[in-house]
Structures are given as C-alpha cells and as structure tokens.
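Researcher: Quick sanity check before group meeting.
Model: Go ahead. Protein one:
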Amino acid sequence: MTAAADGGCTVGFWIWSGGVALLIGGLAFVLCFIPILVWQYRRFGRPSPARVVGAAAVGVYGAALVSYTMLPLPQTSPGWCSRLPDKTPQLVPFHFLEVVGRELSGGPPWGILSNFYALQVVFNVLLFVPWGIIMRRYFSRGFLVAVASGFLVSLTIEATQYTGIWGVYECAYRLADVDDLLMNTLGALLGALLAPLLLWWMPSRDGLAAGRNLPRPVTSRRRWFGMVLDGALFLVLAYLIIAATALSIWLAGFAAPGRLDSSIITGLLQPGGPGSPVAAEGFILAGLLVFYLPACFGSGASLGQRIVWLGPAGPRAPLLRRLWRASLGGGLLTAGAVLTALFADSPWIGPLQLLIVLVLGLSLVLVPFSRGNRGLSYALSGTELADARSTRQPDAAQGRPAEPSD
C-alpha cells in the first residue's frame, strides 16, 4: 500500500515519489555507468546503446518501487504508534470491490474515473506492468518467471510494510493489503504479455552474446574508454590498498613514520602528510598490478585495454619493449601520484604535476590523429593496436573465433 492510499495527498505524493525515483535511479545509473559498459564489453563483445538505456530505465524503476511503497519514512516519537490510523492487515481478497461499490453508490458511473480507491487499484496494477516487461525482454526470462517474480517482490513489499521494515519500526506505518498483492501480480502478468509488443526493439542478451568473439574496428571511443578504465582501476585499487594498510596499522596499534592517530585513514590520503610513505607505497603497488604486471603476460596490454578487447598487433614483443610501453602511459600516472604523495609541499612539484597532466592529456587528444587510433604510448613504442580477437585462430568446431586468452 502506498502512502497515498494511507491517506496522504494522492497527486502530491505521486509527483514527489516520481521525483525521488528519478533522482535516486538516475544517480545509481551514473555510478554504475562504467561497470555496465565493462560488463557489456565482456558479455557481448561491444556496448549495446539500447541495453544501456534499458539499464537506466531499470534503475529508475527499481527506485520507483522503493519510493512509492516505502517512502517517506516516518519520524518517530514516544507513543507515535498509538496515534497512527489502524494498520491491521487487510486479508480479504477483492475487498476493494466492496469499498469502490460503496463509494460510487448512487453516483454516476463515470465517477469511478475520479474515485480515490479505484485509482489506487489501477495504480497498483500499473506499478508492476514494467516489472513484467523488464523481466521478459530485458532479462530474457520466461512468462511464468516474470509473473512469479512479480508476485514474490510484491509479497516482500507487503511483508516489509507489515513488519515495520522488519523491526526497524516498532509498528507498521503502512497498511499491508492482500489486494495490493493481487493487483501487483496482475500488473506483472499484463507486462509479461505486452513485453514482446512494447519492447520488441530491445536486443536480446543471447543474440548479442552470439557475436561476442567477432573482431571489430579499433575506434577512438573504444581506445579512450580503455584508457579511462586504466586510470579508474589504478586510483580505486590504490586507495583501497592505502585504506587497508592504514586500517591494519591502526588496529595493530603501530605508529607510522611521523604522527598517526585515530584519523590515520583520512590522514594517509593527504599528500605530504605523515602517512605519505604508506600512500606512496599504495600507488606503487597499484601501478605494478594495473600496468606493469599485465605487460609481463599474454599480449602485454593493460587491464583497461584487455577489457575492451584491444591489444598489440603482430607477434608478441620482447619484455623490455612491453614494459617501456607500460611506462609511457600508466607508469607516468603512477610516478605523478607517488611524487605528489611524497613531495606535495616541494616548490617543484606543481610544475611537474602540470607537465604530467599535459602529457596524459596529449595522449588522449592524439588518439584519433594517430595511425589506427593507437595513441601516444603505442606510437612511441613502435607498436600497432588491434582488436584482440582478430589475432585468434577460428575455432573449427564452432566456426567462430576462439575465446581470447587475454
């Protein structure tokens, strides 16, 4: 049961909940945008714009389910449960027919179009129509799975309302209603029936995955995305290592060089602070794992380039050449981070940071102007860039390129 059904302002509540869903769902999509592209590259061999849009819709819809059925959360005070209207669960199936009939008794038939309880029933149906559509076409599930999962999700929502979010509140602040469960399930059923008609344009997961191993052109966007992934992986891994090290030092009761107290974790993230040597070690280890270790194995491509199915063309280059190529890209970023952590207060660190940023920026800018979109690091190391799948031999048994080893 939504808050509007509990006596709130219907139009105002629906608009407010819709705004919350757009905000939370949109934010979730932004945060998950890069992981979504990574997953699609690995699962389908390339991104699917239609399914990226679908992911955004799934995020907004998931947030809508929460906002319309759980929010706003009540502010509690002593004795607040006793002041709430009766929240005894409504367990009589189709009880809404009696309520709507009583409300419309003696009035014109078209009064149902503005009746609060009738609109609430319609809303409960419409709320789960997207569920059936999404499960059938976006997640490629069968009709029965789409309907059954809608039933289970609705049942979970009603149980959550009945238990006051599983004991978070000492009493139910929403009315659990069996009619909501029935109407939600009906909505999922209608959505599952309509899915092939409304979402026919959505490519299926199996169809996209069938072409996963087919080589594709090396585009500048693909090269850029691999470079962005390298930088993101380096920073995330570095700060995870730094935080884990700081937490270990703190829990063990040791003191790092200089001064470290209970704010050790945040202190290590401040360049030039007492924890700078530990921070520098974190950046060095992250650089080794993200840039240099991959250069020693397989094609020698960085992790980001491997994710987007890119790698050096031709025979495998000597180890020193692969390490040189890693140093021209990720090594420069690693060196900048390490020097900043150790010498943040030095007068020469500012110009050095500017130089590193300019070189990294130039690497991005030159990608579309370089031969085969290979970029600065590949050009300076004398290496061509290719789709990693184009260098594999076809699998005679399957009639398609074999799975890349990297």
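Researcher: Fine. The other one?
Model: Protein two, sequence then structure:
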Amino acid sequence: MKKEEFSKFLIDMMSRHYEYNITELSSKDGRNTFWGIQKEKNGINRCLVFLNKDNISNVDTNESQQELIKVLVLNKENEKEEIKVQDKDINKIIIVDEEKNKLVYCPQELEEFGAQMYSILQYNEKVESEKRKDKKSIITISLISINVLMYIITAIFSRNILDSDIRVLIYFGAKVNELISRGEYYRLVTAMFLHGGLVHLVLNMYSLYALGPLVEKVYGKIKYIIIYFAAGIVSSIFSYLFSEGVSIGASGAIFGLLGAALVFAFKMRDRIGKGMVTNILSVIGINIFIGLTLPNIDNFGHLGGVIGGILVSLIVESKFIK
C-alpha cells in the first residue's frame, strides 16, 4: 500500500466508523493542501491532519479556531530516520508506521484517537494477512478458477446452471472407459476439471480451498502441482480399471491432497503430535463411508486418489521434513 493510499485508508475508516468529517488544510505557504478529519466534541473542534516527515512543520496551524493534531505517517524510506518535532508539538502528534502497520507513538492526552486508530490498523492487518494468504495460495486459487470456468462452460452448453448434461460432459472430456480404450487418454486428466452439478462443484471447491493451501505451503508450489495432477490421474486410472460408469470431478485429486497431508503428518508426528494423523485418517474414513452409502460416488476413484497422493508425496517429500 502506497503512503497516500495508507493515509486515505485511515481517513476513510476513521470517518466511516467514528463519524469524523473529512476536511482539507493548507500549507503555510499556501502552495499545498493536506487531507484531514475533524469532529466537534464538548465544544472543541479537533482536527487530525495526516502528514509525512517532510511536511510535518508546513501545515498552517492558524486555520479556523480548532485544535490541530498531526498524524505523522512513517514509511519504509524514513522509518529509521530521526524525526525532528518541536517540543511544543510533541503532545499533539500521533505517529503511525505504514510499513509495519502499527501505532508507534501516541501521547496520553490523545489516547482516544490512538485507540481508534489502533483498532483500524488491526483490521487492516487482518485484511492484508488474508491477501498474503491468497497470494501464497496462488496455485490453489488457480485450480479453483479453472474448475469454475469449466463448469460455467458446461453449464452454458447444458443450458442448465444446476446440473450438467451428461452428453456435454462426455464431449468435454469425462472419463468414459470405451473412449479411453480407443486412445483418448487425455480424459484421464480432463475428467478432473468437470463436475456434474453446482452442488458437486461447490463441495469439491470448498474442500480444495480448505486443504489446498496447507499442502501448497508444506510441499511448495511445484510439488503441489505434481501431487495434484498425479493423484488425479491415478484416480482416473483406478476408475477406468474398476468402474464402468462415466466419471468426473476433482475429488480424486483432492483425496490425493489428503494422502499427501497424511504423509506429512505421519513423518512430522514427533514434532506436531499424532493428533493430526488421527484427524486426517478420520476424514478419509468418513468420506469413504459416505461414498459407500450414497449412489453415483466413484469410490475407486477416491481410493486411487489417496493412494496416488501418498505415493507421489513419498517421492517428492515436503520441504519441511529434514
């Protein structure tokens, strides 16, 4: 976030959540203007103006009868530099660090404003943390995007947003044993990105979003891709060998991620405890049980996904395991 954007964010959030009015102040020479916020309380009009170290002393303090509070925004370029503030101003200055997203200094008499700003900075840290998480999980987000895009395409051709036409699914690459036997081996891969209905898609994408970032973090992006596709292909091969029906869905690859997580948890059990191993085994067991009790579930595909994920993750190994 750029310095100007950071100040704008603070101004916007303060005005939105604490009922400040946005205002504009001039520099002493009248050449520049600075954004601020103001609010009247107990008959006193208090104005917070957002500045940097270069213009901290250039704002006109004589504008209108109001109490002026300077908010000094530090950034990466000047955060370690000595900030020269006149002694008479020290109790009217709040200092925030944009780079570290933290409140650096707030005099006791301004603690009300400091507390408000602190809560906003905490919120901003949470938002930025979510952005960093999404950035780190770029492969998972990309896989979800491909699956959603393919569903939109099949929904358009099926003329139905809730359920996909089986003929459309076959046309776009569903696993069909007879066609694979004729040499259409690409179906072992394309079937991973097709879904039979909106509920099917949502459940699989939720599972991928919940599990994918963990596997992506502990194995790294390249190994994660290898595990995902290898597990998905092994899942399709198991389905081809042991199931006659048409098969589609990302669940085989997702079961492969469960297998990879199981391998990681087992090898790291002395450091992270055996609870994670038990939890993953429970999830796998519950899903297999659900698959056995519900119709139209490709259990052999799921089994192949788990086996494929375990075998491949044993080969590539997590970057955290030494």
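Researcher: One line on it for the slide.
Model: Residues 3-135 form one domain.
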